[in-house]
Write a structure and sequence with these properties.
Strand order of the largest sheet: 7-12-2-15-14
Number of helices: 12
Strand content: 15-25%
Helix content: 25-40%
């Protein structure tokens, strides 16, 4: 049985001044994973810095350096949101959206959605529920801004987390609406109970891989990670067992557009499969962009407002000039799957054991399991688990 017991102090998501981040980028870091990503950011061409900034932000979160994580994700999201500004420079950037070697990395829709997912978790850890909700909504908007003008979102975990943030904030009507949307995609998943005050999120396995294929390597195809056998997770907290539900398949999000599986992406456009297939957890329905925008109008502020306010400009991306060479850069330390549960627990969050198993239920090991815990001023908690660096 594989388990990890941690004894960490509570962390708050505190913003770090830009000058402090600049010093962090220049000075050696005490933790290997974060240090490696910051080293890549220092030496990379300018167009690749955003990718390493995202990877560094996630590494910082995994190492419990939430102040660094906040600043790094804020910086990355500023770049993502700049793509939707109504300016000449943004229009030029969009015209290079698919040109290999020239575009600044902004990520595919699932990667941009995950950037808002992590920023939302940091807001949750700090007890800022309104900005958390706005971040999770903005992640859904990024998923809706997928290629082929689908204008759809099916990122179920963001719906769940939006509802959770609303529930913690006492906005019962908004929570009910988010959970109703979630039920369309995960009808067997129970919404968090009214008395729950702790959210558990476990991220398993490795990032979906982006691979060049086709003539002259002009196509992009997605592959699942290699040699990452963990498929299920359970939790033992203070002697109490807790099963975690599979809520999101990140590979599925990478390999689909608006819920439709794709064969490949070529010249910036998705070539869709002839049938729906069975990629990960197949989703049955999709929400419209209009419903997402309507919901966003009633939410909080913070970082997420940039993506929401500029939503009208995003459609110009679909008319962008494209080039034939495939861009196979991807966010390399994302997980493959997201597993979630909630419970009522007022005790110490740091006495946590995690059990990982494969598809056959056999225990598997992870030599880089990370656990971070947060308890905010209102007594609500977050346990965040990552099985791979």
């Amino acid at each position: 049985m594989t388990s990890c017991t941690v004894d960490r102090r509570r962390h708050r998501a505190l913003a770090m001044p830009a000058c402090a981040l600049a010093l962090a980028l220049l000075a050696p870091a005490a933790h290997a994973d974060l240090a490696a990503e910051l080293t890549k950011a220092r030496s990379a061409p300018a167009q690749d810095v955003p990718r390493y900034t995202l990877q560094a932000g996630l590494a910082a979160l995994a190492e419990g350096r939430t102040d660094h994580a906040v600043e790094l994700f804020d910086r990355a999201l500023t770049g993502i949101e700049s793509m939707y500004a109504n300016t000449e420079s943004a229009a030029r950037a969009r015209s290079l959206w698919y040109e290999e070697g020239a575009k600044e990395f902004k990520g595919e829709p699932y990667e941009r959605a995950m950037a808002y997912y992590y920023r939302g978790l940091l807001y949750l850890g700090a007890g800022d529920y309104e900005n958390a909700r706005a971040s999770f909504r903005s992640g859904q908007l990024q998923d809706a801004f997928a290629e082929e003008d689908q204008n759809r979102s099916d990122f179920a975990v963001l719906m769940l987390l939006e509802g959770w943030a609303s529930q913690l904030n006492g906005d019962t009507g908004m929570a009910r609406d988010a959970y109703a949307e979630l039920a369309v995609f995960r009808p067997k998943l129970q919404a968090p109970g009214a008395g729950a005050n702790v959210l558990v999120v476990a991220e398993l396995a490795g990032s979906p891989r982006k691979v060049a294929d086709g003539i002259d390597n002009s196509e992009i195809v997605y592959r699942r990670p290699k040699r990452t056998p963990e498929r299920h997770a359970s939790l033992n907290i203070a002697g109490k067992p807790l099963a975690l539900d599979l809520v999101e398949d990140v590979y599925y999000q990478a390999a689909t557009r608006g819920g439709r599986p794709i064969d490949a992406v070529i010249r910036g456009k998705a070539r869709f499969a002839a049938n729906t297939g069975d990629i990960g957890a197949v989703l049955a329905n999709v929400a419209s962009e209009g419903s997402l925008l309507a919901a966003a109008n009633g939410g909080g502020g913070g970082r997420a407002l940039g993506a929401v306010a500029a939503a009208g400009a995003v459609l110009s991306i679909f008319s962008a000039n494209v080039k034939p060479r495939a861009d196979v850069r991807y966010w390399a330390n994302l997980p493959e799957t997201l597993h979630v549960s909630t419970l009522r627990y007022d005790g110490n969050l740091n006495a946590v054991q995690i059990n990982l198993t494969d598809d056959q239920g056999q225990p598997v090991a992870s030599d880089s399991l990370r656990i971070q815990t947060f308890r905010d001023a209102r007594g609500n908690g977050l346990i965040w688990i990552k099985s791979r660096n």
